[in-house]
Amino acid sequence: MATSLAIVAALIAGVLVVPGSVTGWAAGPTTLVYGKSGDADSLDSPTSTNGEAYQVTTQIFNLLVRAQPGKTDIEPDLATSWSVSPDGLTWTFKLRQGVTFHDGTPWNAEAAKANWDRWADKNNPYHAVKGGEYEYFGDFMADSFKEAKAVDPYTLQVILKQPNSPLLQNLTIIAFQFNSPASMKQYGAEGIGQHPVGTGPYKFVEWVRDDHVTLQANPSFFRKGLPKTQRLIMRVIKDNAARYLALKSGEVQAIELPNTDDVKASMSDPNLKIVFRPPFDTSWLKFNMNNSLFKDIRLRKAVAYAINRPAIVQGLYAGYGEVANQAMPPGMWGRASSPDPITYDPAQSKKLLSEAGYPNGFSFDFWYIPVSRPYFPQGKEIGTAIASDLNKVGIRAHLQTEDWATYLKDQKSNRFPMYMAGWIGDNGDPDDWLGFFFPKYDATSARWSYNNPAVFDLINKAKSENSQAKRAQMYAQAMTLISHDLPNIWFAHAKVPMIVRKNVDGLIGQPDSNEYWELVSSH
Fold first, then answer.
1. N or C: which terminus of the chain carries fewer CB neighbours within 10 A?
2. Which residues, in sequence order, are bridge partners of residue 207?
C-alpha cells in the first residue's frame, strides 16, 4: 500500500518515479553517486534561486557562456562568440551548430529566443509558474532588456533599452539556462520543473523528492568525450554526519558540506581526499527593518555587538572560514576599503540596549537555515551559538526554522524578524552581490526592508557605467553606506571543503558550487 500511495503522489506531482530503479546505490566505474545536503525546489532553473537545484540543472542544461572550471572567467557554451555594439545596446551571439536538446529537437536562435520570451514576457503562455519567480531575470535583466531576435538560424541578438555592463558575466548564472521549447509545449509551464529537457551532458531520468535525482549520460553531448561516467545519481542526505558515513561506507563517492570533525578525520584516511571550492561566499544575519524593534539602529547594533563571530567561525567552520565585514568576499573588485567595524563587545551591546529603552533586553523569533550551506556549514549549530551569545546580554532569540523551500519563500515576507541568509557568488561581477539584495525597498518583504535611495542610485548607475574603475568606486561607496546603516550583520566567508573517495578523479570545485560532473570519473 505504501508503494502504491507513493506512486500516486508522484504522478500527481508530475514526477516520473520508477520504484526500485535505484537499488543499493551501485557506485562504481559507470555510476557516480554524489551526496548532497539538500533537495532542489524545482528543476526549472529560471524560476529558482536555489543552489541545491542549480547543482542538478548544471548537469542537464547549458548557458550561452559559462564559467571556466574552477574559475569565474568566461568560456563559450551554447554561444561560440559574441560582440556588443559601440553604444552597448545590441549584443550579438553566434550560436554553436549541430547541437540538439535531449528530446531530439534542434538548438538554434529560435530556441534561444523562445526562452528569452518566456523569461521576459508575463503574457507568454509558459511564463507563469505557481510558486516560482524569475528573480534573476527581474533583478539582472528586466530593466534593460528590450527583445531577443533570431537574426538567422545561428545568430541571436539581445537588444537592450539601456546599457547593462555586467550582462555577459550575468549570463553565466545558472538561472539563464535554456529549456527545449518542445518540452515547454509538451509539459506546460508548471511541468517544466519536473521534466527538465536541456542540451547538457546528462539526461534527466527520475527525481524522488528528498531522496535522489538520477541522470543518464547524453551520448550526443557536444563536448566530445564527455561525460566520463554513464550514470550520475545526486542523492539527498541532509544530515552531515550521515552523509559522511555514506561516503566512508562507499555508498556515495563524494559529499559536500561535511562536519568540522569529519574534515579533520578525512585528512588521515587513506581512502579519502579533500577538494576545495574557492572562497566565494558570504553569510549574514538579516534584520527585517519593517519590524518595529529593528527599525531602531541601536537595537540592531546591540545584536551585532553581542555575537562573538570570531569564536563561532573558529569553532564551526572547520578552520576554513574568516569573519566577514562586507557583502563581497576578498578578491572581488568593488569592495569597500574601510567599512564600519562591528566587533564582539557585550558591554557596548548592553549600553545600547539601555539607551534604546530595553535595559532588560527583548525577545524575538530568530530563524535559522534548516540545511547546511557553504556559508553556514552547520546551520542549526551556528544559530544556537548566536542565540546563546544574545542571551548573555538579555536578548532572548527564540530559534525557529522550517523546510528549506518554505524558508526561501518566507524570507520574502515579513514573517522573519531576523534570519540567517547567505550568498554564493554567481559570477565575478559586483552587481551579483549588491544588485540582487539592494535594488529597491519593499515594505512587504524582510529581504528588501532596507530603504536607502542613495544606495539604490549608486548600484543602478554602476550597472550602466562602462568604466570598470568608475563602477568599482560606486560599489565601494554603496557598500560603505550599507555598512553604516547595518541592515545585515556580515558573518563569514568560507573556503568550502568537499570530501571524495580516492578513486574519484576530475572533480574541480567551482566558485558558485555548481561543479561540472561531466569531467569526473572513478576507477
1. N
2. 213
DSSP β-bridge partners for residue 22: none
Query: Percent helix, strand and coil across the chain, each rounded to 5?
Result: 30, 20, 45
Residue 131, sorted as left (phi over 0), alpha (psi -120 to 50) or beta, turns out to be: left
Q: What's the whole-number mean pLDDT along residues 315-327?
A: 89
CA separation for the pair 305, 465 (Å, rounded): 37
Distance CA 390, CA 304 (A): 9
Cα–Cα–Cα angle for 109, 113, 114, rounded to 5 degrees: 120
Confidence tier at 25 by pLDDT (50, 70, 90): low
Bridge-based pairing state of the strands 504-505 and 145-152: unpaired
Mean pLDDT of 450-454: 97
Say whether pLDDT at 16 is over 50. no
Three-state SS sequence of 270-295:
CCEEEEEECCCEEEEEEECCCCCCCC
Query: What is the crossing angle of helices 468-485 and 453-464, to 10°?
Result: 160
The burial of 185, by beta-carbon neighbours within 10 Å (0-12 exposed, 13-18 middle, 19 or more buried), is given as exposed
86 preceded by a cis bond (ω within 30 of 0): no
User: Running DSSP on this structure, what letter comes out for residue 87?
Assistant: T
Q: Name the pairing type of β-strands 254-256 and 31-36.
A: parallel
